[in-house]
Design goal:
Layout lengths: L6 E5 L4 H12 L3 E6 L2 H15 L3 E5 L5 H9 L10 E4 L15 H29 L3 E5 L12 H20 L6 E7 L6 H5 L4 H7 L8 H12 L9 E4 L16 H5 L1
The chain binds NADPH dihydro-nicotinamide-adenine-dinucleotide phosphate and 2-hydroxyethylsulfonic acid.
Length: about 260
């Protein structure tokens, strides 16, 4: 399928994987609805996409956790932007990496509200339009964390396992329609993800990717574009991708530092 002139709704487009999706789909000629809380970032991205690829974007400042706001904004979309061909449910985050008994309830609630409830609110609001048009593709960004729990990952892993269950549930319930449903499960991707997890501790975030080559946001975005551009009768149900330097959520290969190599 050609994504040119399709309308792609991307949550979490202000950073990382979502921003890379905007870039990759923009380069392929799609029209973009860019969603996140940080509007200035979206507007800056939209201006860049317009200048670079000549594509138009519509920016929406939206907190996906806010159900009344999601309902209102998505049900009152400008008619020029109200027919969505591809929904990329990407907005999400991890907060904290403490053992279960010490973890923060606020962090837990933020992950559950964003990664599960936010995805549900957006999907539920956009599905009727897709069903009416009898076309659409919902692409959920989960994680390998949803396939394999790791120590101190408890609630983040649970939210991503929920995303996988919801992807499967959606596919089952949309059988008999032309709508497509895909789950993307990446391993380590270097974005702002770890900075958010560690509440802005940049040094600790950098250690996550130290001496290994993580995936880039663009790697994931290109995989998503691949799924979206298959022929209309092909549904890619799930793709799991991780860096060559990663074998599981707990097993990574860190290359010896240059200084150590020389010693
Ligand atoms: P980033 O932190 O770089 O981007 C997260 C995006 O989500 C931002 O655009 C942020 O925008 C948005 N977001 C967060 N909370 C909300 C909210 N309440 N409402 C609207 N938007 C929100 O991280 P990534 O790009 O890495 O993460 C994207 C997705 O990929 C997440 O679902 C993450 O779990 C998943 N993932 C990431 C991996 C990694 O290693 N990086 C691996 C596997 C999966 P803003 O703050 O402006 O609202
Ligand atoms: C993000 C990847 O392994 O840090 O979903 O949980 S991991």
């Amino acid at each position: 399928m050609d994504v040119r002139n399709t309308t792609v709704f991307i949550t979490g487009a202000s950073s990382g994987i979502g921003q890379a999706c905007a870039e990759v789909f923009g380069a392929a000629g799609a029209r973009l609805i860019l969603v996140a809380r940080r509007l200035e970032r979206l507007e800056h991205l939209a201006a860049h996409l317009e200048t670079t690829y000549g594509v138009s974007s519509h920016c929406l400042a939206l907190d996906v956790r806010d159900r009344p706001q999601v309902d209102h904004v998505l049900k009152t979309l400008d008619p020029e932007w109200s027919t969505i061909d591809i929904l990329i449910n990407n907005a999400g985050l991890s907060r904290g990496l403490e053992p279960f008994p010490e973890a923060s309830l606020e962090d837990w609630e933020e992950m559950i509200d964003t990664n599960i409830k936010g995805l549900l609110y957006v999907t539920r609001a956009l599905l009727p339009g897709m069903l009416k048009e009898q076309r659409g593709h919902i692409i959920n960004v989960g994680s390998i964390a949803g396939l394999q729990v790791y120590p101190r990952g408890h609630v983040y892993c649970a939210t991503k396992a929920a995303v996988q269950a919801l992807t499967t549930g959606l596919k089952l319930d949309l059988l008999g329609t032309p709508l497509r449903v895909t789950g993307i499960e990446p391993g380590l991707v270097e974005t702002e993800f770890s900075q958010v997890r560690f509440h802005g501790d940049g040094d600790r975030a950098a250690q996550v990717y130290e001496n290994l080559t993580p995936l880039t946001a663009q790697d994931v975005a290109e995989t998503i574009l691949f799924c979206a551009s298959r022929p209309a009768h092909v549904n890619i149900n799930q793709i799991v991708l991780m860096p060559v330097d990663q074998a599981s959520t707990t097993l990574v290969h860190r290359h010896p530092q240059a200084a150590k190599k020389e010693a």
